[in-house]
Amino acid sequence: MIKAEVITIGDEILYGQITDTNTQWISAELDKIGINTVRKSSVGDTEEAILQIFSEAKQRADLIIVTGGLGPTKDDITKKTFCKFFNTSLAVHKEALEELTAFFRKRGREVTGLNLGQAELPLNSTFISNKLGTAPGMWFEDEGKIFISMPGVPFEMKGMMSDLLLPKIQEHFKTPVIFHKVVRTVGIGESLLAEMISDWEDNLPENLKLAYLPAIGDVKLRLTGFGNDLESLEKQVEDAFEEVMPIIHSYVFGYGNIELGEAVGLLLKEKNQTVSTAESCTGGYLAHLFTKVPGSSAYFWGGIVSYDNSVKMNQLGVKAETLEQFGAVSEETIKEMAEGVRKRLGTTYGLATSGIAGPDGGTPEKPVGTIWIALSSEEGTITRKLTLGGFREQNIHLTSIQILNLLRQNLS
């Protein structure tokens, strides 16, 4: 397994002034060609810090990829630091100078003195063309290790990496094949899921590795295979998941990057059924999980955010006596909300949420995190009481996931 380390250089990253998206993208691209990123680091624009991280990375990884610090100003010291690290010096690179001159000429501008310095490269480096900017990339080989330096500007880095460096890296390292498959589960916690499939996991072949990736409301199972032939590896991973599927099938809602709202939408579309929402505590978030999917108008007909009791009564038909006797956060009210929105919007299903999302508003009888959800159809209305925590955004998200899962189970 080829090990890689990705390093970003720039005070602006450490200060939180910009978000580092480069390391995530680079790691994902390396993974596709069978290279494992073992560490990601960010350092400021100081020679001491950069030299230290270079030395450490050289001990840990076979491939070290660096972004940032290649601009024309004095604070961009990456090239000079590479020279010190490799005990070499800068010199004007003919091809880099020609490319830089052509870049400015195409835009009707003259190359400034500061920009001319960008055509200087360490003598031991290989020039990497940058068709989208003024800072060329560099490739270094030293004691069996590869260092690559690229601009920090994301679109320049991605162009250079995709067009030139990924093929060069593959050729140099003769990389193995890695194949991932992700199964998405909902309605079961990580520990219980792990317990349920422990025997299957223990008997996986040595070249298959399972990872649990929990999030708020769902757990991903990622099975990674390592080998030399992609086709046989894909089959091996597929066969392994087929073995465990009878145990977990009731919790599985999809594969890869699909989200629960999209998966439920596909089921509704497949069955030619529709849904509407009546939301109180989720404030439209449930509707958003439907409508963020392109084409969702085929099955999602609309929603009513009934935050105030008057809206529950006037728009959803909730009885005044129900609210007065049981309150907005109750089984009786949520039932009338779900039935009301289904009938008013004429959909197959009506979904409703009402509760105390927090951080305030709780009582001893109904503490923060007390939520009621309901699903209404011609067959009747199903209600569920949720007892969640004290964090508002988490409660809103979990409530929406729970009711989506209730609908998924009803559709399956």
UniProtKB/TrEMBL annotation:
For this protein, the record's SMART domains field holds: MoCF_biosynth
Q: What is this protein called?
A: CinA-like protein
- Organism of origin is Pseudarcicella hirudinis
Q: Which domain of life is it from?
A: Bacteria
Please name the PANTHER family in this protein's record: NICOTINAMIDE-NUCLEOTIDE AMIDOHYDROLASE PNCC, NMN AMIDOHYDROLASE-LIKE PROTEIN YFAY
Q: Which residues form the MoaB/Mog domain?
A: 5-172
User: A Pfam family for this UniProt protein?
Assistant: CinA_KH
| Similarity comment text for this entry | Belongs to the CinA family.
